[in-house]
Design goal:
It is built from 15 helices and 17 strands. With 488 residues, it is an alpha/beta fold. It has two domains: 2-119, 3-Layer(aba) Sandwich (Glutaredoxin); 124-287 and 381-479, 3-Layer(aba) Sandwich (Rossmann fold), CATH 3.40.50. The strands form four sheets. The chain has a nine-stranded mixed sheet. Strands 2-1-3-4 form a four-stranded mixed sheet. Helix 5 (134-148) runs parallel beside helix 13 and helix 8 packs across helix 9. The longest helix has 22 residues, at 101-122.
Length: 488
């Protein structure tokens, strides 16, 4: 069987005619298979030079047609341009094709329209809520461009919104910040706009990232703090229900009770999938890596982030002992026991090995106390929550969730619980998750847990139960049978 390849410019009528004929033959001849490689005008010359160089050809016009014998991707045998392709089709299949210029123009126009629609679908509309969190804004845009950008920023549209924009001075300041971002950030998306209503931010949005500061105010009791957070989330949920697309994804990556706020959105957002609402929690594990490296004298880059469990932002647990480390281990040969000291033969080999931090620690208690002490000191010195771990965690999440291929990475993420690990279902809890083939984060329920982790999860679940009841969370799962919690 021969496999044909037709490549050409997207505005070339000869290429359009060749593809039309190849499609016709494919539907009628079981041994005729083809694939088309279409390039826009600005990419065609470079692509033509590349295939000429690889195959030692001297083609100069569109289209270029060749066949690959026995398998797709096999050795390429040049047929030539459109004229040679017609000759081949007539000699082998007795087929001739005639088409008026008008019909050919219509087909080509349809192809161009489909191509432009495909490019439009690739464009990501991203809204950042809480844009006046200026310290985070610039770095968040860096991560977005790094994940979705192609170098010219044409496939990203970013909308910035904050409820503080009712203040004219605040809006002017944000506009100044955006102008500076365009000048400072290399390859920054050109379409960065400031919107003044939540409706505008949600309309046609593919991804919403909430970075607004929900930290507890000085002197504010817990109930008032959570009530303030709930009210803000309910307002967002109401607009999402009216203006959002079904496929909208929401990422909460802000200082404050991220799992609580995500739980409120899960409770009140009825038009998007529960699995599309997630809370970034890996930052709690990232923030302790340097301390762990210092404790055992290893390099930070050799650590994997430890898992984070619980109601992040209010009550959580980092399983320090479960942090994986890439270490070097010396493995002696058998002759090392008998070889003379003066021998120059190698006595062993140094190999890399993955170990868990728990195997290198005598006790975790002192380390947890040190972690808590350093956290408090860091907040005191900065006079705010640290944001760099949050930015790094967000970047990792974006790359995994929107990657071309689904990987097997295990991360910590706040997702709608299905009862795994003993967490209450219908509530957002941080847990170990993986991305399935449908790009839905699901709990890794087979992950073995340390006994201390199981106890801490039980303690957190009991203490969070009062918050859940007081603020009416988790009721949607009981009342709405259509709530989609399946991970398959």
């Amino acid at each position: 069987m021969a496999y044909f390849v037709i490549t050409g410019k997207n505005d070339c009528p000869n290429c359009t005619h060749a593809i039309h004929v190849a499609d016709f033959l494919t539907k009628r001849l079981p041994s005729f298979k083809y694939r088309a490689i279409i390039k826009p005008e600005n990419e065609w010359t470079q692509w033509l030079d590349q295939i000429n160089s690889v195959n030692n050809w001297y083609q100069t016009k569109s289209p270029v047609i060749w066949k690959e014998v026995s398998r797709m991707g096999g050795k390429a045998h040049l047929i030539g341009g459109l004229g040679e392709f017609w000759e081949y089709c007539y000699d082998y299949y007795g087929f001739q094709s005639r088409m008026s210029k008008e019909d050919l123009a219509k087909i080509m126009a349809d192809n161009l329209l489909i191509a432009s629609y495909a490019v439009e679908l690739q464009c990501k509309n991203i809204s950042i809520i809480g844009a006046t969190s200026y310290l985070m804004l610039e770095m968040v845009i860096y991560e977005i461009e790094s994940c979705f950008g192609t170098g010219d920023g044409k496939n990203i549209e970013i909308k910035l919104y904050d409820q503080c924009l009712d203040d004219a001075d605040e809006e002017d300041y944000l506009l100044d910040v955006v102008d500076k971002l365009r000048d400072m950030i290399k390859c920054v998306p050109q379409s960065i706009t400031v919107v003044t209503t939540l409706e505008e931010a949600i309309d046609q949005c593919d991804l919403m990232i909430i970075i607004e500061n929900f930290s507890r105010n000085s002197g504010e009791n817990v109930d008032l703090w959570l009530e303030r957070c709930k009210n803000a989330m309910v307002l967002i949920a109401e607009d999402i229900n009216v203006y959002s697309k079904r496929s909208l994804r929401v990422i909460l990556n802000h200082p404050g009770p991220v799992c609580f706020n995500a739980s409120v959105l899960m409770e009140y957002c009825t038009t998007i999938r529960l699995a599309n609402i997630v809370a970034v929690t890996t930052d709690e594990g990232i923030s302790v890596i340097s301390m762990m490296a210092e404790k055992i004298g290893e390099l930070v880059e050799n650590f994997w982030c430890p898992p984070v469990w619980g109601f992040s932002g209010i009550m959580s647990h980092v399983t320090v002992a479960a942090a994986a480390i890439k270490t070097e281990v010396y493995r002696p040969y058998k002759r090392a026991l008998k070889i003379k000291e003066t021998s120059k033969l190698p006595k062993g080999v140094v190999q890399q090995e993955i170990r868990f931090l728990g195997s290198l620690l005598k006790t975790e208690d002192s380390l947890y106390a040190e972690i808590e002490r350093r956290r408090e000191l860091e907040v005191k010195l900065l006079e705010r929550q640290p944001i760099l771990p949050k930015i790094r965690a967000l970047g990792s999440l974006l790359r995994l969730w929107f990657s071309k291929e689904v990987g097997d990475d295990i991360i910590s993420l706040g997702i709608c619980s299905n009862g795994s690990f003993g967490f209450a279902p219908g509530i957002c809890f941080s847990q170990a998750v993986t991305l399935n083939e449908k790009r839905i984060w699901e709990p890794l329920s087979t992950l073995p847990l340390y006994a201390t982790t199981v106890l801490r999860i039980q303690e957190i679940s009991l203490q969070v139960e009062n918050i859940i009841k007081k603020f009416g969370l988790g009721e949607r799962l009981n009342l709405d049978a259509s709530a989609d919690l399946s991970y398959s």
